[in-house]
Write a structure and sequence with these properties.
By secondary structure, the chain is an all-alpha fold. The chain is 67% helix and 1% strand. The N and C termini lie far apart (62 Å).
């Protein structure tokens, strides 16, 4: 290969990875390659049983007619997820031969994984903020592939519905977005970490009174899905499916291993984290989001909506009572966006910023791959999170006026639907 040909190849690759016009092409190529990788993982890497069998045991009781949540249990303990989980895994129970056909379940989760990644790619493209190369880390996480096709956790369905909701919000389809958001909550409550940001956006768009219909959509869906349990054993259902006082085991924590176990299990530590969580959200809402978002619908770019919701979730992640290994899927796919929108350190070049960007992402991945977690891995994870949180506060995500105009048109359409 001549020097001229080599230079031409370098220019082509650089254009492919950096030019926004190639975003869709790169996204499709990555999805295709990731589908092949996922197939190899399913076929070559041994499946590890953690919660799948317990999920099947829990929904089997429901299918046999039991409606008392306190009697729906599996080998790992009682059922602690809302009704949407029961219906979803009852469906999986039926089509996987009562959960016995693990390979079929893995392939179903593989399809969900590709769909999930495609929705996230669409979100990144919708933001108009990121070049194609930012998508690459989204398909390279070993832990994420494991969560989807080697562990079969319910978290993936909750987050898929959540990201679909966010995508709809960027098109100002607020009512339909609230439907998907509430469906996500019905599978696992971690989706509520996005709720403060969503509430802020709804109030900014529709006012306090105007956002009530949107919030009612979320509430009605929860009631309708829970009716078989609410009309029979309501207290049991509410206590178990929305168990806010759930206790976590120190041996499984990824984020607080470096603290003393006695402190970790204390109510004072839980209260401190809750206070920090609330304070963090208030700081962002009143000193960051109001300035970033503005006071009119026209200023609500897709990037702003995405950033606000991603940060809302990320604040909850930092101050979470405990993070278990499957919880990585709660926020991994938001990291490249948050990192890319961080401002560059003063005096640093773009290449230096990119190196920092990847270093943080690699460090976080390494922490989640460390099993069991250690004092060092947990402290490193917290340090990386804090850097990203500060960077997110300092970020600028306002788009061009053309994008804002598009958002305004979408919002006006949504108002006409009301």
């Amino acid at each position: 290969m001549t020097a001229t040909s080599l230079q031409a190849c370098v220019r082509f690759v650089r254009s492919l990875l950096c030019d926004q016009k190639h975003f869709v092409l790169v996204a499709v190529l990555l999805l295709f390659c990731d589908a092949l990788l996922t197939f190899v993982v399913i076929e070559k890497v041994p499946y590890t049983e953690i919660d799948w069998k317990a999920y099947m045991q829990e929904v089997q009781g429901y299918l046999l007619g039991e409606r008392d949540y306190k009697r729906l249990e599996g080998d790992t303990g009682p059922l602690v997820y809302p009704a949407g989980f029961v219906y979803l895994y009852s469906f999986l129970f039926r089509i996987t031969e009562q959960g016995a056909n693990i390979k079929l379940a893995q392939y179903l989760f593989g399809v969900v994984y590709i769909l999930f990644t495609g929705v996230v790619f669409a979100l990144y493209g919708r933001s108009g903020r990121v070049p194609p190369w930012v998508l690459v880390p989204l398909v390279l996480s070993k832990r994420i592939h494991s969560i989807f096709v080697l562990r079969l956790f319910n978290d993936v369905f909750a987050m898929l519905l959540c990201y679909v909701a966010i995508l709809l919000f960027t098109y100002n389809r607020w009512s339909l977005g609230c439907v998907f958001f509430s469906l996500g909550v019905s599978i696992k409550m971690n989706v509520l970490l996005f709720a403060p940001g969503l509430l802020f956006l709804l109030i900014q768009n529709f006012g306090i009174i105007g956002c009530i219909p949107k919030l009612s959509i979320c509430a009605i869906i929860q009631v309708v899905l829970g009716l078989p349990f609410l009309t029979t054993y309501p207290v049991s259902y509410l206590e178990r499916s929305f168990e806010l006082g759930r206790k976590f085991f120190f041996k499984w924590t990824v984020n607080w291993r470096f603290v003393d176990e006695e402190l970790f299990t204390s109510s004072s530590f839980a209260l401190l984290l809750l206070c920090l969580h609330v304070c963090g959200l208030l700081v962002f809402a009143f000193t960051k989001w109001r300035k970033q978002y503005g006071t009119t619908i026209a200023s609500a770019s897709a990037a702003n909506i995405i950033h606000i919701l991603f940060v809302s979730n990320f604040v909850g992640i930092i101050f979470a009572r405990s993070l278990h290994y499957q919880f990585y899927v709660w926020y991994f796919h938001t990291l490249p966006f948050l990192l890319y929108t961080m401002p560059s350190p003063a005096g640093s070049s773009s290449s230096s910023s990119t190196i920092l960007w990847f270093s943080l992402l690699l460090a976080i991945e390494a922490c989640w791959l460390t099993f069991p977690s250690t004092n060092i891995s947990s402290a490193t994870l917290l340090a990386c999170h804090v850097v990203i949180l500060i960077g997110s506060y300092l970020s600028q995500t306002t788009l061009s006026s053309s994008s804002s105009s598009s958002q305004k048109g979408g919002a006006e359409k949504d108002k006409k639907r009301k």
